[in-house]
Write the C-alpha cells for this entry.
Amino acid sequence: MSTSQATRPSFLSSEIALHTSARPAPAPSARLAVFEMAGATMGFAGNSEIYGEDEPAEYLYKVVSGAVRTVKLLADGRRQIGAFYLPGDIFGMEMGEAGTHGFSAEAVVDCRVIVLKRGAATSLAERNGALATALWNHAARDLARAAGRMILLGRKSAEERVVAFLHEMSARQAGAHLVELPMSRQDIADYLGLTVETVSRTLTLLETGGTIRLASARRIELVDPAYLEGLDD
Amino acid sequence: MSTSQATRPSFLSSEIALHTSARPAPAPSARLAVFEMAGATMGFAGNSEIYGEDEPAEYLYKVVSGAVRTVKLLADGRRQIGAFYLPGDIFGMEMGEAGTHGFSAEAVVDCRVIVLKRGAATSLAERNGALATALWNHAARDLARAAGRMILLGRKSAEERVVAFLHEMSARQAGAHLVELPMSRQDIADYLGLTVETVSRTLTLLETGGTIRLASARRIELVDPAYLEGLDD
DNA sequence: CGATCGCTTGATTCCGATCAACAGGAGTGG
DNA sequence: CCACTCCTGTTGATCGGAATCAAGCGATCG
C-alpha cells in the first residue's frame, strides 16, 4: 500500500493549506467555487478513512484528485458502497438524526480533497442566494441519484447492474469509450450489491459477447456502447 | 377503489384551500411550519398520482393525513418504492439533472397533502436562517436514510429486510407494538426489493417463530421487539 | 351469492452466492 | 536477475435463497 500521505490526518494538522488569498477566482465549475475560496486542502492515502460513520457531520468535502468511496458496514462485515466520488464531486452532505454521517468515507486511491466547514457553507449561503440555490440543487440531485441506486439494488439483474456501472463510469469520464476504473473488483461488487466472482464473470461474459474489451483489469473499452445504453434503464 | 377525491387534481384547481389567513401558528413540529403558513392543501384518492417521474420538480409536499409512496418503474414493469411518507413527513425534494423528479409520487390511501412552491420555500429561507437550516437538515437526513436503504437492498436477507421494515414502521408510529400498515403486500415487496410471496412467507415464519402476531393482514403485533432490534443492523 | 382482489401456501426453478483452485502481476529481497 | 510472496482477479463446481409458477383461501363489494 502507498504511504505517501498521512493515513489519518487531523483537521488541526499543520499540513492544511488554506486557500484564502485573493485570487481571480478560476472557479472550475462556477457553482460552488466557495470550496476553492474558503476551503482547506488535505491529502489522504489510498484506503485511509476520511471520516467515520458515527462522526459528527461537521464538514463538506470536494474531490480535487483521486477517488473517494462512501461505505456502510454491517456487524458481520457485509459492506455496501453508497457512491464513488471523482474529481469535482462534493460529498459528506448526508447527516442522520444524531447529526452524524450515515456512511463512512474512504480514499480509494491517494487523493486530495478540499474540506469546508458545513456551517461556513450555509452561513455564506444566507448572504448569497446563488450559492444557496447551488447547494440546494446539489442535495436534490444526490437524492435523485439515490433513487436510481435503489432500483438498481432492489430490482436489477447482475448483468444490468454491471452494465449500469460501466455506463455511469463512462458518462463521468466525459463519455469516454475507454473507461479507467480506480477501484477494485471488491469495491465494484460492494457498490452493486454483488460478489467479486459475479462481477468478474459478468465482465467476462460481456467481453465474450463483444460488448466490451478488458484491456486490463482496471481499463475497460466499451466496444458496443449502444448495447450498454439499451440495458441501462 | 375509493373515489371520494379527485384522481388527478390540477394545481390550478379551485378545490385548493389556501392557508394564508393569520392563525396563531399551531406549528405541529415548529420546524417547517412554513408549509402550514404558505402552502395549499390538496386531496388525493388512494392510488392516484401526485406527481410523475419526469415532471419538473416545482413543489415540495407535506403529508397531513394518509400515506404516500415514491415509485420508480423500469420499462418492463419492475417497480421500486423509494420511501413511504406518513403524516408530518415532507417529500418531493429529489430533483435530477433535468430538473425533474427521480421518482413519481402516489397516494397509498386517500390522503391530504400541503403543497408549497419550491421557490417559495427557498426564497423564504433566504430571509430566515432557521428555516434554511431546517430545510437543509431535512435534505441531509433524507440522504442518510438513503444510506440505510442501500445496505438493506444490496446486502440484507429477506428476513432482515422484513424485520427492518416492521421495526421502521413501529418507530414511525411512536414505537407502538401494534403496527398499522397502510400499504399492500405488493407495496412492501417493492419497497424491500422482494416479491409478495417472499414477504408473505417471511411474515408467516416470523409469526410461527413467535416474533410477531398477524392480527390481520394490515395489523401486526410485535410480540418480541428485542428480536427485531437484534436483527436490524 | 358470486365475483374480484389481496393474501397465503405449495412445488419447482434458477440466478447469484459460496467454496475452491488457480493464474497473473507487482513488489521484495536474496 | 530470479525466486518468492502477496494480492487481485478469473474460472470452475456446487449450493441455497428467493423468484417463479400455480393453487387455494378469505374478505370485501356489487
Observations:
- The mean pLDDT of chain A is 86.
- Residues 184-186, 196-197, 199-201, 203-204, 217 of chain A lie near DNA strand D (CB under 10 Å from a C1').
- Chain A touches chain B through 47 residues (CB under 8 Å).
- DSSP finds seven helices and twelve strands in chain A.
